[in-house]
Amino acid sequence: MSTVIKNGTVVTHDLTYEADVLIEDGKIIEIGRNLSGTDELDATGCYVMPGGIDPHTHLEMPFMGTYSSDDFESGTRAALAGGTTMVVDFALPSPGQGLHDALKMWDNKSTRANCDYSFHMAVTWWGEQVFDEMESVIKDRGINTFKHFLAYKGALMVNDDELFASFNRLSELGGIAMVHAENGDVVAELSAKLLAEGNTGPEAHAYSRPPQVEGEATNRAIMIADMAGVPLYVVHTSCEESHEAIRRARQQGKRVWGEPLIQHLTLDESEYFNKDWDHAARRVMSPPFRNKHHQDSLWAGLQSGSLSVVATDHCAFSTEQKRFGLGDFTKIPNGTGGLEDRMPMLWTYGVATGRLTPNEFVAVTSTNIAKILNCYPRKGAILVGADADIVVWDPKKEKTIAAGTQQSAIDYNVFEGKKVKGLPRFTLTRGHVAAYDGEMRTQEGHGNFVKRAGNTATNKALSSWKALTSPRPIERSGIPASGV
Ligand SMILES: NC(=O)NCCC(=O)O
Ligand SMILES: [Zn+2]
Ligand SMILES: [Zn+2]
Asked: Which co-factors does it depend on (predicted)?
């Protein structure tokens, strides 16, 4: 059995052309004119693009005394509804837990995934066991990305000595370092002071995490990564201070990538000043939403290439869960949803406004991250031999975002009421049509784990440079006799 996508315009990160796409056994087998197959999908008036890849999700994540409400089933269903065909989730060991132990837990949860997925490994504590297991996580499990939290003091946060040790180990093994860049010590101090002064509401979450805490931590991580000789990926870049550090590092030739979220690009800090406690608390996430100055900086970064990827950090908590923080903003579970809305929101606020070209849209939602994570061109490509993870995108299709019609398990949507123009007509996950003109036809358990080998081209380039420039003793003849 084969499927042909007919009469569409193929849009990739570098090309736009009219062609049909023929699929068999989950792969693209031919691209050309006048193709035929057993099943036909009509793409007249549509763009045929690589399915989105969201490299930053937290599905069923244990966090702040509860679990995020979307699991691998509802989360990947939401992804497919919005044109995303692969998610990358974070496996988080609890303190003292081994990396492989934590991965077993994530393996169990992910059996229900409707689309392909991969994992990043989090380094939440440091010791010999973590040092040792990192090797097999990369070589046997095919996980080449390791996240470090510089925030969440007393929980997930690692200190600078641990960060440097882990970055050095990754440099040796050919891994990629990731950071949540906020200065956790300063956030803890500011939070305690705000609470003592009677600032208990959700707006104080934003006051406790000003752009400076993010700028400082981003810059620190960049410098530590540079000394270790490891590539660095900065997650949820939300402000000019952090973007500026990334931009400068890239201009200096450092291997650093920045990832803004669709929430930070399109929602601002005024959400926290809403008189309705629930409204404000539902939008509590770290880093918090910023103002227009920061949003313009992020858009400019995507346009100029100093920022590389748009993600969601999908970590959805219900209103009931958010209310754990009534009377104390530090207890509001941090996180917002966005998996279903990332692509339509970015198209509406990016492509339709002229901030991004359709090719740039494909680059920042799919191809760039496939290259960074080392799964391109299996993912992120419309090429013969690639997985048939495809979105047939109708630029004229419209809807108003509403919690009542979403796939996510929670009872609200941070984009509620936003009108989007540009939606999937069909979303295909390895050839299976999981979203058919608004109707969900997902298959629970269809998703496969995507292995990603370490020692990428970027790792090799960095280690060659490191070897060439590393400190070495100067050979001298005629060493003076000691003493005077
Ligand atoms: N971002 C957020 O507030 N929650 C999810 C965990 C994280 O990425 O920091
Ligand atoms: Zn984070
Ligand atoms: Zn996150």
From this structure: Zn(2+)
Q: How confident is the model at residue 337 (pLDDT cuts 50, 70, 90)?
A: very high
Does the beta carbon of 217 sit less than 6 angstroms from any atom of ligand 1? no
**Global confidence as pTM:** 0.97
Three-state SS string over the chain comes to: CEEEEECCEEECCCCEEECEEEEECCEEEEEECCCCCCEEEECCCCEEEECEEEEEECCCCEECCEECCCCHHHHHHHHHHCCEEEEEEEECCCCCCCHHHHHHHHHHHHCCCCCEEEEEEECCCCCHHHHHHHHHHHHCCCCCEEEEECCCCCCCECCHHHHHHHHHHHHHHCCEEEEECCCHHHHHHHHHHHHHCCCCCCHHHHHCCCHHHHHHHHHHHHHHHHHHCCCEEECCCCCHHHHHHHHHHHHCCCCEEECCEHHHHHCCHHHHHCCCHHHHHHCCCCCCCCCHHHHHHHHHHHHHCCCCCCECCECCCCHHHHHHHCCCHHHCCCCECCCCCHHHHHHHHHHCCCCCCHHHHHHHHHHHHHHHHCCCCCCCCCCCCCECCEEEEEEEEEEECCHHHCCCCCCCCCCCCCEEEEEEEEEEECCEEEEECCEECCCCCCCCECCCCCCCHHHHHHHHHHHHHCCCCCCCCCCCCCCC
Q: What is the pLDDT of residues 447-463, one digit of tens each?
A: 999 999 999 999 999 99
Cis preceding-peptide flag for 62 (omega within 30 of 0): no
Burial of 478 (0-12, 13-18, 19+ CB in 10 A): exposed
Q: Is residue 74 within 6 Å of ligand 1 at its C-beta? A: no
Indicate the top mutation candidate among 214, 315, 330 to test ligand 1's pocket, ranked by most ligand atoms within 8 A of CB.
315
Please tell me if the CB atom of residue 334 comes closer than 6 angstroms to any atom of ligand 1.
Answer: yes
Beta carbon of 286 within 6 Å of any ligand 1 atom: yes
Minimum-distance ligand 1 atom for the alpha carbon of 152: 9
Give the ligand whose atoms come closest to the C-alpha of residue 57. 3
Please give the ipTM for the structure prediction: 0.99
Residue 483: is its pLDDT beyond 70? no
Cα–Cα dist 259/309, whole Å: 5
236 CA from centroid of ligand 2 (Å) = 7
**pLDDT, averaged across the chain:** 97
Q: How far apart are CA 390 and CA 289, in angstroms?
A: 31
